[in-house]
Automatic annotation (TrEMBL):
Gene3D superfamilies per UniProt: 3.40.190.80, Fructose-1,6-Bisphosphatase, subunit A, domain 1
Protein name as it appears in the record: Inositol monophosphatase family protein
Annotated Pfam families: Inositol_P (PF00459)
InterPro entries xref list: Inositol_monoP_metal-BS, Inositol_monophosphatase-like
Organism, scientific name: Periweissella beninensis
Top-level division of the source organism's lineage: Bacteria
Length: 259
Protein backbone atom coordinates (compact mmCIF):
# COMPACT_ATOMS: atom_id res chain seq x y z
CA UNK A 1 0.00 0.00 0.00
CA UNK A 2 1.18 3.54 -0.82
CA UNK A 3 1.92 5.88 2.07
CA UNK A 4 -1.06 8.09 1.28
CA UNK A 5 -3.42 5.09 1.46
CA UNK A 6 -1.87 3.97 4.75
CA UNK A 7 -2.42 7.44 6.17
CA UNK A 8 -6.00 7.49 4.87
CA UNK A 9 -6.79 4.10 6.46
CA UNK A 10 -5.09 5.17 9.70
CA UNK A 11 -7.11 8.38 9.92
CA UNK A 12 -10.38 6.70 8.98
CA UNK A 13 -10.09 4.00 11.65
CA UNK A 14 -9.11 6.56 14.29
CA UNK A 15 -12.32 8.44 13.51
CA UNK A 16 -14.36 5.22 13.84
CA UNK A 17 -12.85 4.69 17.27
CA UNK A 18 -13.56 8.23 18.37
CA UNK A 19 -17.18 7.85 17.21
CA UNK A 20 -17.62 4.46 18.92
CA UNK A 21 -16.25 5.88 22.16
CA UNK A 22 -18.79 8.68 22.00
CA UNK A 23 -21.64 6.26 21.33
CA UNK A 24 -20.48 4.09 24.22
CA UNK A 25 -20.61 7.05 26.57
CA UNK A 26 -24.06 8.13 25.38
CA UNK A 27 -26.13 5.02 24.70
CA UNK A 28 -24.80 1.57 25.06
CA UNK A 29 -23.79 1.49 28.69
CA UNK A 30 -27.32 1.96 29.97
CA UNK A 31 -28.59 -1.50 28.99
CA UNK A 32 -25.65 -3.80 29.41
CA UNK A 33 -26.57 -7.41 28.62
CA UNK A 34 -24.04 -9.86 29.98
CA UNK A 35 -23.75 -13.55 29.11
CA UNK A 36 -21.28 -16.35 29.79
CA UNK A 37 -19.20 -17.89 27.00
CA UNK A 38 -17.12 -20.73 28.45
CA UNK A 39 -17.75 -19.97 32.12
CA UNK A 40 -18.30 -17.31 34.77
CA UNK A 41 -14.91 -15.72 34.10
CA UNK A 42 -15.41 -15.63 30.32
CA UNK A 43 -18.10 -13.05 29.70
CA UNK A 44 -19.41 -11.21 26.67
CA UNK A 45 -21.79 -8.25 26.47
CA UNK A 46 -24.03 -6.67 23.86
CA UNK A 47 -21.39 -3.93 23.62
CA UNK A 48 -18.65 -6.41 22.59
CA UNK A 49 -21.00 -7.74 19.88
CA UNK A 50 -22.23 -4.33 18.71
CA UNK A 51 -18.74 -2.87 18.44
CA UNK A 52 -17.52 -5.86 16.42
CA UNK A 53 -20.57 -5.65 14.15
CA UNK A 54 -20.05 -1.93 13.53
CA UNK A 55 -16.33 -2.35 12.82
CA UNK A 56 -16.91 -5.34 10.53
CA UNK A 57 -19.43 -3.37 8.46
CA UNK A 58 -17.09 -0.39 8.22
CA UNK A 59 -14.11 -2.52 7.18
CA UNK A 60 -16.20 -4.16 4.44
CA UNK A 61 -16.82 -0.71 2.96
CA UNK A 62 -13.25 0.63 3.42
CA UNK A 63 -11.47 -2.52 2.24
CA UNK A 64 -14.04 -4.69 0.40
CA UNK A 65 -11.79 -7.65 -0.45
CA UNK A 66 -10.38 -8.05 3.04
CA UNK A 67 -10.96 -11.04 5.30
CA UNK A 68 -11.84 -10.22 8.91
CA UNK A 69 -11.01 -12.25 12.01
CA UNK A 70 -13.07 -11.00 14.96
CA UNK A 71 -13.36 -12.47 18.43
CA UNK A 72 -17.16 -12.50 18.53
CA UNK A 73 -17.60 -14.22 15.18
CA UNK A 74 -19.05 -11.48 12.95
CA UNK A 75 -16.13 -11.79 10.54
CA UNK A 76 -14.88 -14.68 8.42
CA UNK A 77 -13.38 -18.08 9.08
CA UNK A 78 -9.89 -16.90 8.14
CA UNK A 79 -7.52 -19.73 7.12
CA UNK A 80 -4.77 -17.89 5.31
CA UNK A 81 -2.80 -14.68 5.82
CA UNK A 82 -2.73 -13.96 2.08
CA UNK A 83 -3.96 -10.55 0.86
CA UNK A 84 -5.63 -8.25 3.42
CA UNK A 85 -6.54 -9.69 6.84
CA UNK A 86 -8.06 -7.52 9.59
CA UNK A 87 -8.16 -8.54 13.26
CA UNK A 88 -10.75 -7.12 15.67
CA UNK A 89 -10.95 -7.36 19.44
CA UNK A 90 -14.07 -5.24 19.99
CA UNK A 91 -13.66 -4.96 23.76
CA UNK A 92 -10.41 -6.24 25.21
CA UNK A 93 -10.77 -6.64 28.94
CA UNK A 94 -14.49 -7.38 28.99
CA UNK A 95 -14.34 -8.20 32.71
CA UNK A 96 -12.80 -4.80 33.47
CA UNK A 97 -15.41 -3.17 31.26
CA UNK A 98 -18.20 -4.85 33.22
CA UNK A 99 -16.77 -4.45 36.73
CA UNK A 100 -14.72 -1.25 36.50
CA UNK A 101 -15.62 0.65 33.34
CA UNK A 102 -11.93 1.38 32.87
CA UNK A 103 -8.76 -0.42 31.75
CA UNK A 104 -10.30 -1.87 28.60
CA UNK A 105 -9.39 -1.37 24.97
CA UNK A 106 -10.62 -1.67 21.41
CA UNK A 107 -8.03 -3.22 19.10
CA UNK A 108 -7.74 -3.55 15.32
CA UNK A 109 -4.95 -4.56 12.99
CA UNK A 110 -4.41 -4.87 9.26
CA UNK A 111 -1.95 -7.42 7.89
CA UNK A 112 -1.12 -7.53 4.18
CA UNK A 113 0.42 -10.76 2.84
CA UNK A 114 1.18 -11.69 6.46
CA UNK A 115 3.02 -8.43 7.20
CA UNK A 116 1.76 -6.25 10.04
CA UNK A 117 0.84 -3.01 8.24
CA UNK A 118 -1.38 -0.85 10.46
CA UNK A 119 -2.76 -1.17 13.99
CA UNK A 120 -4.86 0.64 16.56
CA UNK A 121 -5.28 0.14 20.31
CA UNK A 122 -7.63 2.58 21.99
CA UNK A 123 -7.54 3.06 25.76
CA UNK A 124 -11.26 3.79 25.83
CA UNK A 125 -11.41 5.36 29.27
CA UNK A 126 -8.61 7.86 28.55
CA UNK A 127 -9.48 8.33 24.88
CA UNK A 128 -5.93 7.68 23.72
CA UNK A 129 -5.40 5.79 20.47
CA UNK A 130 -2.03 4.08 19.95
CA UNK A 131 -1.75 3.68 16.20
CA UNK A 132 0.46 3.50 13.15
CA UNK A 133 2.66 0.98 11.42
CA UNK A 134 6.19 0.27 10.20
CA UNK A 135 5.98 2.71 7.28
CA UNK A 136 4.26 5.67 8.97
CA UNK A 137 5.56 5.49 12.57
CA UNK A 138 3.76 4.90 15.86
CA UNK A 139 1.75 7.55 17.69
CA UNK A 140 -0.28 8.07 20.86
CA UNK A 141 -2.99 10.27 19.37
CA UNK A 142 -0.82 12.93 17.65
CA UNK A 143 2.36 12.32 19.61
CA UNK A 144 5.08 10.29 17.87
CA UNK A 145 6.46 7.48 20.05
CA UNK A 146 10.07 6.37 20.36
CA UNK A 147 11.53 2.94 21.08
CA UNK A 148 11.39 2.32 24.84
CA UNK A 149 14.67 2.24 26.75
CA UNK A 150 16.37 -1.17 26.57
CA UNK A 151 16.24 -1.94 30.30
CA UNK A 152 16.92 -5.33 31.93
CA UNK A 153 14.26 -7.54 33.47
CA UNK A 154 15.62 -6.80 36.95
CA UNK A 155 15.12 -3.06 36.35
CA UNK A 156 11.48 -3.19 35.25
CA UNK A 157 7.90 -4.21 35.99
CA UNK A 158 6.60 -7.24 34.12
CA UNK A 159 2.99 -7.44 32.92
CA UNK A 160 1.40 -10.90 33.12
CA UNK A 161 -2.03 -12.47 32.84
CA UNK A 162 -3.84 -13.21 36.11
CA UNK A 163 -5.29 -16.49 34.84
CA UNK A 164 -1.90 -17.88 33.88
CA UNK A 165 -0.40 -16.81 37.19
CA UNK A 166 -3.17 -18.58 39.12
CA UNK A 167 -2.50 -21.71 37.11
CA UNK A 168 1.25 -21.36 37.77
CA UNK A 169 2.00 -21.50 34.07
CA UNK A 170 4.61 -20.01 31.76
CA UNK A 171 7.53 -19.79 34.21
CA UNK A 172 5.76 -16.63 35.41
CA UNK A 173 6.90 -17.02 39.00
CA UNK A 174 10.55 -17.13 37.93
CA UNK A 175 10.09 -14.17 35.59
CA UNK A 176 8.32 -12.24 38.35
CA UNK A 177 11.07 -12.97 40.88
CA UNK A 178 13.75 -11.62 38.56
CA UNK A 179 11.80 -8.45 37.77
CA UNK A 180 11.12 -5.42 39.99
CA UNK A 181 7.51 -6.61 40.34
CA UNK A 182 4.55 -8.23 38.63
CA UNK A 183 1.62 -6.19 37.29
CA UNK A 184 -1.76 -7.62 36.22
CA UNK A 185 -4.22 -5.27 34.48
CA UNK A 186 -6.80 -7.70 33.05
CA UNK A 187 -6.63 -6.42 29.48
CA UNK A 188 -3.95 -7.54 27.05
CA UNK A 189 -4.29 -4.24 25.18
CA UNK A 190 -3.73 -2.18 28.33
CA UNK A 191 -0.70 -4.31 29.27
CA UNK A 192 0.74 -3.83 25.79
CA UNK A 193 0.25 -0.08 26.16
CA UNK A 194 2.43 -0.16 29.29
CA UNK A 195 5.19 -1.79 27.24
CA UNK A 196 4.71 0.65 24.33
CA UNK A 197 5.06 3.56 26.77
CA UNK A 198 8.15 2.06 28.41
CA UNK A 199 6.35 1.77 31.77
CA UNK A 200 6.70 -2.03 31.84
CA UNK A 201 9.74 -4.02 30.74
CA UNK A 202 7.55 -6.63 29.01
CA UNK A 203 4.36 -8.66 28.87
CA UNK A 204 3.86 -12.41 28.73
CA UNK A 205 0.59 -14.30 28.30
CA UNK A 206 -1.09 -17.03 26.30
CA UNK A 207 -3.60 -15.44 23.96
CA UNK A 208 -5.59 -15.49 20.75
CA UNK A 209 -4.75 -13.67 17.48
CA UNK A 210 -7.18 -10.77 18.16
CA UNK A 211 -5.49 -10.25 21.56
CA UNK A 212 -2.01 -9.73 20.11
CA UNK A 213 -2.36 -8.78 16.40
CA UNK A 214 -2.44 -4.99 16.93
CA UNK A 215 0.28 -4.95 19.58
CA UNK A 216 2.59 -6.99 17.35
CA UNK A 217 2.43 -4.31 14.65
CA UNK A 218 2.93 -1.42 17.07
CA UNK A 219 5.71 -2.98 19.14
CA UNK A 220 7.66 -4.43 16.22
CA UNK A 221 7.49 -1.02 14.54
CA UNK A 222 9.09 0.32 17.74
CA UNK A 223 11.86 -2.32 17.36
CA UNK A 224 10.64 -4.40 20.29
CA UNK A 225 10.94 -8.20 19.96
CA UNK A 226 7.54 -9.90 19.73
CA UNK A 227 7.72 -13.72 19.71
CA UNK A 228 6.51 -16.82 21.48
CA UNK A 229 7.93 -17.34 24.97
CA UNK A 230 10.53 -19.65 23.37
CA UNK A 231 11.71 -16.88 21.07
CA UNK A 232 10.14 -18.43 17.96
CA UNK A 233 7.93 -16.80 15.35
CA UNK A 234 4.24 -16.29 16.17
CA UNK A 235 1.53 -18.10 14.20
CA UNK A 236 -1.02 -15.39 13.37
CA UNK A 237 -3.91 -17.82 13.06
CA UNK A 238 -3.72 -19.73 16.33
CA UNK A 239 -3.32 -19.11 20.04
CA UNK A 240 0.27 -18.42 21.15
CA UNK A 241 2.15 -17.84 24.35
CA UNK A 242 3.32 -14.37 23.47
CA UNK A 243 6.35 -12.58 24.88
CA UNK A 244 7.19 -8.98 24.15
CA UNK A 245 9.87 -7.16 26.07
CA UNK A 246 12.88 -4.91 25.68
CA UNK A 247 15.57 -6.74 23.65
CA UNK A 248 17.60 -7.24 26.84
CA UNK A 249 14.72 -8.64 28.94
CA UNK A 250 13.41 -10.68 26.01
CA UNK A 251 16.72 -12.57 25.82
CA UNK A 252 16.77 -13.08 29.59
CA UNK A 253 13.22 -14.49 29.63
CA UNK A 254 13.69 -16.76 26.60
CA UNK A 255 16.81 -18.28 28.18
CA UNK A 256 15.54 -18.36 31.77
CA UNK A 257 16.42 -21.63 33.50
CA UNK A 258 13.70 -22.89 35.83
CA UNK A 259 14.87 -23.32 39.43
C1 LIG B 1 -8.82 -11.10 27.63
C2 LIG B 1 -8.03 -10.04 28.34
C3 LIG B 1 -7.23 -10.64 29.49
C4 LIG B 1 -6.33 -11.76 29.03
C5 LIG B 1 -7.15 -12.83 28.29
C6 LIG B 1 -7.94 -12.20 27.15
P1 LIG B 1 -11.08 -10.31 26.40
O1 LIG B 1 -9.48 -10.54 26.51
O2 LIG B 1 -7.14 -9.40 27.47
O3 LIG B 1 -6.41 -9.67 30.08
O4 LIG B 1 -5.68 -12.32 30.13
O5 LIG B 1 -6.27 -13.80 27.78
O6 LIG B 1 -8.75 -13.20 26.56
O7 LIG B 1 -11.71 -11.69 26.40
O8 LIG B 1 -11.48 -9.48 27.55
O9 LIG B 1 -11.17 -9.65 25.08
CA1 LIG C 1 -13.58 -12.41 25.42
CA1 LIG D 1 -12.68 -9.13 23.56
CA1 LIG E 1 -8.96 -9.78 24.21
Amino acid sequence: MEEQDLLRFDKTVQQWLVDIRQTLEKNLLANLLISEKKGRRDLVTNVDKNVEKILTEKIHILDPKAQILGEEGFGDAVRTMRDHVWFIDPIDGTMNFIKQRDDFAIMLALYIEGQGTLAWIMDVDKGIIYHGGPKIGIFANQQKLKTPQNIRLEDGLIEVSGGRLLNQQLKLVEIGRKSLGIRIIGSAGMSFIKVIEGKAVGYVSKMQPWDFAAAKVLLESLKMPFTTIDGTEIDMLSSNTVLTATPCAHQEIVHLELT
